[in-house]
Amino acid sequence: MCVLLYIKHSKSFSGRLVQLHDEMSVVERIIMFLSELGGTACLVFVGCLGCISGNATVISFGFGFAIMMGVQIFGHISGAHINPAVTVAAATLGSFPLINVPIYIFGQLMGAITGFGLVKLLIHNSILSIAGLCSPGPTQHLTAFQLFLSEFILTLLLVWVCCAVWDSRNATKHDSLPLRLGLAVTGLAMAGGGLSGANMNPARSFGPALLNNTWDRHWVYWLGPLLAGFIGALIYRIIFSKDAKKNETYPEGT
């Protein structure tokens, strides 16, 4: 039986549960870890290869299609969070066992290092080798707070997309889900790429930063997305979730 913990919250939650851990075996947890590692490696490898072009549109679509590939390949295995902010959001909604949070995030970080390591291996000592390739590129004309706000808002929108996907009321609307998620990331990357780089993912930021040894205002790319993951999911849970609506249903159109 899953061990569950009640959280004292406002009546709008109607006593929802937060899952502490589940009955998953050690082998199953290892598989989840490897799935998140593989999905994040796919994201960083494909996305960062696109950064070689230097074209903002190519980069945005590259990361969007990388998300599409990761979700298609690993979504049925671990859910393909491939982003610590998404994992934090899932745990905040109460739909994801807390014991799996560090497992997922560690897998995502290792995947980002692996994916970018492969990129470095491919272009090492070649004309394509670029200093600081794919590292978070904060716009120097913006303050640290503006960069933080950019990452926070962009990730908040991404988290709300994920919350809507997980909502049971959308259970019949998952056709072409990998493509939809990929295009959502593409749109956000196009919108915010010129500000903070629109990383929206601490793992995606960490891998290139570590291997390039570039840490300029790196904290922004952790604090913004992780806070957005928690606050965004909390807002969705309190205001928009099925429990918040007390199981009322509304017609989709007029």
TrEMBL record:
Alphabetized PROSITE patterns for the sequence: MIP
Membrane topology term: Multi-pass membrane protein
SUPFAM superfamilies xref list: Aquaporin-like
Naturally occurring in which organism (per UniProt): Diabrotica balteata (Banded cucumber beetle)
Compartments where located: Membrane
InterPro entries: Aquaporin-like, Aquaporin_transptr, MIP, MIP_CS
Organism phylogeny: Eukaryota, Metazoa, Ecdysozoa, Arthropoda, Hexapoda
Record GO cellular component, one term: plasma membrane
Protein name (record): Uncharacterized protein
Keyword Metal-binding: no
NCBIfam families: MIP
Stored PANTHER family: AQUAPORIN TRANSPORTER (PTHR19139), ENTOMOGLYCEROPORIN 1-RELATED (PTHR19139:SF270)
Family, similarity comment: Belongs to the MIP/aquaporin (TC 1.A.8) family.
TM regions (residue ranges): 30-52, 59-79, 85-106, 118-138, 144-166, 178-199, 219-239
Pfam families: MIP
An example molecular function term from Gene Ontology annotations: channel activity
Keywords: Membrane, Transmembrane, Transmembrane helix, Transport
